[in-house]
Amino acid sequence: MIRAGIIGGAGYTAGELMRLLINHPEVEVAWVHSTSNAGVPLADVHEGLIGETDMRFAETFDLNACDVVFMCQGHGFSRKFWEDNELPEDLKVIDLAQDYRDESDGYVYGLPELRRNEVELCRKLANPGCFATAVQLALLPLAQAGLLEGEVHVTGITGSTGAGVKPGATTHFSWRNNNISVYKAFEHQHLKEIKMTLSGLQGGKDPDISFIPVRGDFARGIFVMADITTGMEIGDLTKLYKEFYAGAAFTFVSDRPVDLKQVVNTNKCVISLEKHGDKLLVLCAIDNLLKGASGQAVHNMNLMFGLPERMGLALKPSAF
User: Fold this and answer.
1) pLDDT tens-digit readout, 125-163
2) Residues 134 and 273 in one domain
3) E-assigned strands of the chain?
4) C-alpha to C-alpha distance for 123 and 93, rounded to whole angstroms
5) Could you name the active-site residues (predicted)?
6) 124-126/92-95 β-pairing
7) In the chain, what's the furthest Cα-to-Cα distance?
8) Which residues are catalytic?
9) What letter would DSSP give residue 316?
10) Structural domains in the chain (count)
């Protein structure tokens, strides 16, 4: 049985992570740390856990009492945490923040569809960002085939949970509902890790990506639309994608148009392709809290501990 600890248990990703781990057949949650909620039942903060657990948030943590620790605090916290705390020799780390996505300090960038073998052998893992996951999965086969030669246009729409649990001017319901807006155009922080991965597939050549992130008026999910110019036929492009993802546990290439309801509340990524003249349109959908965060973290944990990839992640989308 894997004993897991969670640092920073109050946010959306931590709540989803707890939901998965509590129901994982090979995991026991040892403790969930939260300074602001110490002593409070988990289900008082993450109300979906009512009836699932009677655990309370811990004020302290014992890194030696677990086999893996999930870092769920905000960006910048993890580096400071490990400056102040020693990593036990046998402890594995899965960091959901962006601190080590540059693969510094021995971390492996944990995109299973591309780095499965490295993930299986690593001790310290940096979980990809939500937008980064969707954009990369939309473009990986093209990068490997050398087809990202010109400008790549990408628009991505994300749900409000992507902004975190703390309310703000652009996240509260009355502003977000029935509304849409662009933010961080061409400058989103996930572009760094996207380009790092795609560059590695293209012999060090950075792709020219114009990325427009959009705030959607829904709670969860990411819908990415990417287009490039190519003379390749749609049949060959579809074959390229299906062969690339043939062994993937959660990423599927569909012959029908993608929509968010196919993936919300699951760890799936669903991709579809359309060809319009010399334009290829790639559509890609994921749940930002699962495939884009906590579900992918559990997938990586399964790989790191030699468990079946889909264990604890057999989640079903809603029919409506």
Assistant:
1) 999 999 999 999 999 999 999 999 999 999 999 998 765
2) yes
3) 2-7, 27-33, 68-71, 92-95, 108-109, 124-126, 151-158, 181-182, 208-215, 222-229, 251-253, 269-276, 279-286
4) 6
5) 130
6) parallel
7) 61
8) 130
9) -
10) 2
- Tokens 């690593």 belong to 122
Question: Structure tokens of 298?
Answer: 């559990």
Strands 151-158, 208-215: pairing kind = parallel
DSSP 155-189: EEEE-GGGG-SS--TTTSHHHHTT--EE-STTT-T
**110 and 296 in contact (C-beta within 8 Å)?**
yes
Q: Are residues 153 and 234 in the same domain?
A: yes
Return the closest-CA partner of residue 2 out of 312, 274, 268: 312
Give dist(CA 259, CA 179) in Å, integer.
Answer: 19
Residue 317 lies in a domain: no
Tell me the pLDDT tens digit for each residue of 238-271.
999 999 999 999 999 999 999 999 999 999 999 9
Q: What is the mean pLDDT of the chain?
A: 93
Residue 49 is assigned to a structural domain of this protein: yes
pLDDT of residue 177: 79
262 and 296 inside one domain: no
Token pair listed for 193? 């890790």
**Angle (CA) 20 21 25, round 5°:** 105
Tokens of 70: 């999930």
Which domain CATH number covers 195?
3.30.360.10
103 is in which domain, residue-wise?
2-128+291-304
Contact predicate 11/72, CB 8 Å? yes
